[in-house]
Structure formats: structure tokens, C-alpha cells
Amino acid sequence: MHRFQLTTTLYYGPDALSALNELAGRRVLLVTDAFLASSDLMTQVRTQLRDAEVEVFDSVRPNPDINAVTDGLRSFLGFLPDAIVALGGGSPIDTAKAVRKLALEQGHDLPAGLVVIPTTSGSGSEVTSFAVVTDAESHAKLPLTSVDMLPEIAILDAEAVLTAPPRLTADSGMDAVSHAIEAYVATGANVFSDALAEKALRLADAALVRCFTDGSDAEAREQQHAAATMAGIAFQNAGLGIVHGLSHAIGGSFKVAHGRLNGILLPHVIAFNAGTLGLRPQDLTDVARRYAALAAALGLQASNERNRVLALSGWVERLRRNLDMPATVTAAGVDRSEFLAAVPALAATALADFCTSGNPVAVTEADLAGILRHLV
Predict the structure, then answer these.
(1) Are residues 123 and 231 in the same domain?
(2) Residues 6+ positions from 76 with CB-CB distance below 8 Å
(3) Can you give the CATH number for the domain in which 123 is found?
(4) How far apart are CA 52 and CA 47, in angstroms?
(5) Using CA atoms, how far apart are residues 128 and 100, in angstroms rounded to an integer?
(6) Structurally, how many domains does the chain consist of?
(7) Where are the beta strands (DSSP E) in 108-152?
(8) pLDDT by residue (tens digit) across 190-243?
(9) pTM score > 0.70 for this model?
(10) Domain of 36?
(11) Residues 237 and 323 in one domain
């Protein structure tokens, strides 16, 4: 038996921010970062919340750590809000989720729920029960999951991402692409998550490079925003795999953006999971056939299923080039010798990562170490 759950209500399209009017008369903790706290978007959000009592926590940092979450919880307990509104990318949203979870464990519920307004099109955090928090001492990324962290409302406003710079657009967009591809082959994949993953990739195929090339392309921004959310719903219900397990491990030790790492990893992981190297078309595994089906859904042409798997990897590589993204960790600025020396520890960390458990092929530390060594 499979289970597919839709929990978050989505508001999108023109005037989507007016959904905040539902919080009139409520006490609202607005969680964001220092940059967004002084932005035009914040002004629009505050205007919609004019009939609410608002407290702003704007100390969110990139890759939020345990200390940042603790600061947010302190703000929560000092204000005791009815609702949290998270404004920003994955960092403010993940911070808000973790704060909500910790507050709930201390007996403080949110009667008006968690509302998220994503300003990037990638993490899918607006529709998932996952958050990633960094250990301040070890710098390891700690994936958290709990149904208590699922937002009640997500507001998808294309204007919120119009000013996202090209590099952030590329990194977040590749994150969404990796969510869709991993969800399609993950152990929990089902017909509903498949449909969302396929549609997310088709939208990203049509819109992501357009967003990167011209950030003011409102139609492309709206499509990519929808793609990221669809991919988020897909992986929330299907799971992820070793792209994310490895990316979390690397990102905890080396300062490379998560989506950028995913783009580097994807072709190597597809090749490993599919086992395409040296195989004849008639010997393809069920996982390889899943990748081939996804390639077909993208309209990629090939003479047989094996070549469709290769076409899917090629599509990722072309997308990566068109987004001016690196193909190796060294090209992303990581010292080669330092990375290779860290491989055993990274492999062990990735094997223990929650996301790795959803990979369609069972892996060992040696398998993961082998993939890591190909990234330089």
C-alpha cells in the first residue's frame, strides 16, 4: 500500500499575498533574514499583515545552525505568536520549521499555523516536512523531518523571485531538478509523485534557463516557481537518494552551494544507480528503466532505453552548462587534495544521512567513496 499526502494549501497567481489577510487580528512572528527585512517585498508583506500584531525575527543566516534556531525559539517564546510567517529561501523556511517544532515540544502550538513565502524556486521546503540545520561545531548538516514541520499555507508569488540573481536562480533551480529526478526513482515513488516529478521537469526544461538569462521574465519565473513546488511535493511523498545524502555531507565540510553540488553529482549518481556502463539494452535494471521513462517524459530521443538513460544524464549536463555551473568540485572552488583526503569521512556521513535510505539501489561506504572520487 502506498500513501500520498497533500497537507499544504497553495495560494498562487496575481495577488497571492492577499492570503495573508486571513491572519488579521492574530499575533504573527515573521521569520526572515536581514536583507529581506528591508526589502520592497517585506513592505508588501507588512501591508497585507497590517491588521495583525507582528514581531520580526530577522537574524536568519545562510545554512542556519543550531544557535540561529535557538535564537529564533527565544524570540518565539518571548512573543508567543498565533502564527509564523517565513519569508525567504530555504534558510528562513527551515529555521521557522525548526522553531515551530521546538516550540511545540515545549507545549506551544500555532493555532493559525505556519505560512511560508518562498523567495527562491528550488528547495520545495514550502510543502515538505523536512528541514536542514547545521551543527555549529562540526559543521555537519543535520536533516530533520517531522509532520509537525509541514506548513499549513504556502504563498507562491512570482514577484517574490523576480529579483533573485542569476547564480541563486541556477543553484536553486538545479536543486528542484534534482528533487524531481531523485523522487522519480526513490523507493517511495508512486503514480502521483511520478506525475508531479515529470511535470516539474518539463516546466524546468522550458523555464529555468530563461529565468537565469532574464530574471525579469515573469512567465518563466512563475513556471519555475511551480516546478519547484511540484518537485517538493513529489519528494515529500516519494523520498530522495544519494544525490542529497552526498550533497549534505560535502556541503557540511566545503562551502559549495547545495544546488551546485547536486548538479555535479546527478550524472554520476544516475550512472551508478542505473548501472548503464557496459550493459546491453536487454540487461537494464528496473531502476535504469525508470530513468529511461523519465527521459521519454522529457521528450528526449534515443534508439533504446539504455541510450535514454544516457540522454537523461546528457540533459542534466547541458542544463548545467547553460546555467554556467561547474562540472566538478574543484571547478567549484574546492581544493583537490583536501577533498580527496576527506572522502572516507564524507562517505561515512553520507551513508548515515536520512536521504540515502530512499535511494533505489543499496549502497556501501565504498560505493559512495567511489562516486566522491569521480567528482574532482
Answers:
(1) no
(2) 29, 57, 84, 99, 103, 108
(3) 3.40.50.1970
(4) 10
(5) 14
(6) 2
(7) 113-118, 130-134, 141-145
(8) 999 999 999 999 999 999 999 999 999 999 999 999 999 999 999 999 999 999
(9) yes
(10) 9-161
(11) yes
